[in-house]
Specification:
209 residues; binds glycinamide ribonucleotide; alpha/beta
Length: 209
C-alpha cells in the first residue's frame, strides 16, 4: 500500500496556490507527493514554479482542433497518474460531468468567494471579486469544495471569510484574499487526504473518532 498520497494539481494562472502547496510539502506541513502539475496554458506561472521544484509538468491546450478530445486527453493523463487527489488551484476550465464522475470525491476546487454565493459558470478570478464589490456585500472569502457535475456546487470542505473594506476594489480584494486562499488550500488538501469525513447530502461532516 502507498503511504504518501499522490496529488495532481491543475492550474491555469500564476500558480501562487500551487506554490503554497509546494511550500507545505517541502516544510513537512503537508504529507503528500505532488505527482504532477497540469496546465492548460503554456506560459503559466504554475508551470514555471513546478519546474523549479522538479515536479513533472504536462501542458494540455484546448484549441479548435482538439475541442472534442481535450477532456479525453486530460482523463487519459489523470488515469495514468492515478492520484489520490486532484486539486484545481486556479484551473479555468470547467470539467464535463462524465470526467468529474470518473473521480468521485477525488477532485477539489478552490474558489475565490464564499460559495454558494458568486459561483457558477462565468464566475472566476477577478470577475468574482468585481461581482462581490458590485453586490455591496460586506463579507467575502474563499471556499474549497468537492467538484461535482454542477459547477461550484459540490460539498464544501472548508471556507475562510474576509471583511470587505469601503475602499476595496477587485484588485485589493484579490490581494487581501490571497494569503487566506493559500492556507485554506493546504488545510483542505490535508483534511481530505486524511479521509476522516463523511458526506451527508451536500455537507462534509468531520469524523471525530
Ligand atoms: C485563485 O484566486 C482561485 O481562487 C481562483 O483563481 C486564482 C488562482 O490564483 N480560482 C477560480 O476563480 C476558479 N473558479 P493562483 O494562480 O495564484 O493560484
Amino acid at each position: 500500500m502507498r503511504s504518501v498520497k499522490n496529488i495532481v494539481i491543475l492550474a491555469s494562472g500564476k500558480g501562487s496556490n500551487l506554490q503554497a502547496i509546494i511550500d507545505a510539502v517541502e516544510t513537512g506541513s503537508l504529507d503528500a507527493n505532488i505527482a504532477a502539475v497540469i496546465s492548460d496554458k503554456r506560459d503559466s506561472g504554475a508551470l514555471e514554479r513546478a519546474a523549479k521544484h522538479s515536479i513533472p509538468t504536462f501542458v494540455l491546450i484546448r484549441n479548435q482542433s482538439n475541442r472534442d478530445t481535450y477532456f479525453n486527453l486530460l482523463y487519459e493523463r489523470l488515469r495514468e497518474i492515478d492520484p489520490d487527489l486532484i486539486v484545481l488551484a486556479g484551473f479555468m476550465k470547467i470539467m464535463p460531468a462524465w470526467l468529474v464522475e470518473k473521480f468521485p470525491l477525488k477532485v477539489i476546487n478552490l474558489h475565490p468567494s464564499l460559495l454558494p454565493c458568486f459561483g457558477g459558470p462565468g464566475f472566476y478570478g477577478h470577475k468574482v471579486h468585481e461581482k462581490v464589490i458590485e453586490s455591496g456585500a460586506k463579507i467575502t472569502g474563499c471556499t474549497v469544495h468537492f467538484v461535482t457535475p454542477d459547477v461550484d456546487s459540490g460539498p464544501i470542505v472548508l471556507q475562510k471569510a474576509l471583511e470587505i473594506r469601503d475602499n476595496d476594489d477587485a484588485v485589493s480584494l484579490a490581494e487581501r484574499l490571497s494569503p487566506l486562499e493559500h492556507s485554506l488550500i493546504v488545510d483542505a488538501v490535508n483534511f481530505v487526504l486524511t479521509g476522516k469525513f463523511q458526506i451527508d447530502g451536500n455537507r462534509v461532516i468531520r469524523k471525530t473518532l
